[in-house]
Amino acid sequence: MKRVLPPLNALRAFEAAGRLGSFKEAAAALHVTHGAVSQQVRLLEEWLGAALFERHNRRVTLTPAAKAYLAEIGPLFEQLAQATARYGVPGPVSRTLSVNAPATFTLRWLVPRLAKFRAEHPDVEIKVETSNEPLESLKDDHDLIIRGGPDTFYGYAMRPFLTEERLPVCSPALLQRQPLGVPGDLRHHTLLHTSSLPRLWPDWLASAQIPGLRPAATLTFDHFYLTLQAAIDGIGIAMGPTSLVSDDLAAGRLVAPFAGPRLPSRSYCAYVPDEKRGDELVGLFQSWLEREGM
């Protein structure tokens, strides 16, 4: 008799989603995107002619029939894995993902979170290169490039994953020495500048309706991450991008003396070369960036 089998990739996606109780966790386990799991489950539902999951706002639950189906096929996947291990088939080959991102973003946002990605995907090696060059000026090929946006570049697909605003930040110790009650009190402080972002303080002071304010002193650095480090060390007050100082604010290394005004800023976006758009590993990392940036 001819065997009638469902699409195996779709069955694999259903088994992982049903066992883990989450499309998101299934996607992480299978090293694919959330959308890929959802698509494969939908394909299996169409093939079977029956719904497998009841879909709610942010969660899914198995239908009674799907629970019974999973109870029968789940052990088969375990048997298949054990048989494969017994016959010495090598495990998954590690892959390297090449990422290019700005230095300050890498140091203050990406690096503190990479350990979490590596724990979830130990077989993936990440190669990070820092640069602020425009996409079209990059000499080396990369799987994914992080830059501000949203912008449109020929040959790249773009998806934003992290938004931010800018506002003054400083160390708690600095405020103890010289309190800040209103924006006008900045005249008693040192304002920290970055040479590549000369308009940050003038634009914020204009938004605060004190465009002519003259601080006690100014200090300018050539890299933004040095400016932020100087603020942490209590040297002065910096214009901090909310996404890049969120960990410092949460840990108490920095404080925001004023609730506003907040300067709007460009989002961080992932730019993927067209030839990499179907790559499951690239899609996996892109989805992870979006989850972390929520």
Overview of this protein structure:
With 294 residues, the chain is of the alpha/beta class. The protein has 3 domains: 8-86, Orthogonal Bundle (Arc Repressor Mutant, subunit A), CATH 1.10.10; 95-161 and 267-293, D-Maltodextrin-Binding Protein, domain 2, CATH 3.40.190; 165-264, D-Maltodextrin-Binding Protein, domain 2 (3-Layer(aba) Sandwich). Helix content is 42%, strand content 21%. The protein has helices at 8-20, 23-30, 34-48, 64-86, 103-120, 172-177, 200-207, 224-232, 242-251, 280-293; strands spanning 53-55, 60-62, 95-101, 124-130, 144-149, 156-162, 165-169, 190-194, 217-221, 238-241, 263-264, 267-273. Helix 1 packs across helix 2, helix 2 crosses helix 3 and helix 5 packs across helix 9 (242-251). The termini are far apart. 29% of the residues are buried. The mean pLDDT is 89.
